[in-house]
Amino acid sequence: MAHPDDVDFGAAGTVAGWTDRGIDVVYLVVTDGDAGGFDDGITRAEMAALRRDEQRAAAKYVGVSDIRFLGRPDGRVEATLDLRREIARVIRQVRPDRVLMPSPERNYERIYPSHPDHRAVGSAALDAVYPDARNPYAFPELLAEEDLGAWTVREVWISGSPAAGLNHFVDVTDRFERKLSALRAHASQTAQMGEGLPRMLRGWMSGNAAAAGLPEGRLAESFQVVDTA
């Protein structure tokens, strides 16, 4: 994901379900979120350190302990070859079956998922999955210098896609409070929202549940799942 809190807004309930079933989950966060927050009295370096700590705290609510940061400047991410290499490196280190990422598409129906950093990370991550990580001749230095052989990711889950692309919904009603706790751990970003935060989440997630045909009162997270095997 691009920033601390992105995975929690988009998929914390789903992640909690994975870890509950014994699935190992690793977070890769491209920036430290140093351009976030609302406190003019804190330096950007202090904000970056705070947001790393907040992401670590949030991850505990959903059973994740392996969190990696690339430390790129918040708000200035581009889908460069160098970023593709960094993401492909982690894919080859972790060797995941599934990669969750932000959508590289602009969502005109709901603009918030379409932060430029989100789209850049989504584009670079998708390219890192296919073709970079699986191609033994892409970034040969990863093999020669770090002994990181090629790895094929079987599927990609995209968060924040336009509605027309959504094809998978996860009922997370029973894990809503864990998702909310994870988001409240990002206090520098969410504390000022107060009780507006759960109301906003329930609004989004009940809409997802309705789109999935779930009964009234259920809450869901939505994804575009792509077969990349």
TrEMBL record:
Q: Does the keyword Transmembrane apply?
A: no
Query: Which of UniProt's keywords are assigned here?
Result: Zinc
Regions crossing the membrane: none
InterPro entries, alphabetically? GlcNAc_PI_deacetylase-related, LmbE-like_dom_sf
Q: Does the keyword Zinc apply?
A: yes
SUPFAM superfamilies named in the record: LmbE-like
Protein name as catalogued:
PIG-L family deacetylase
- Source species: Actinomadura graeca
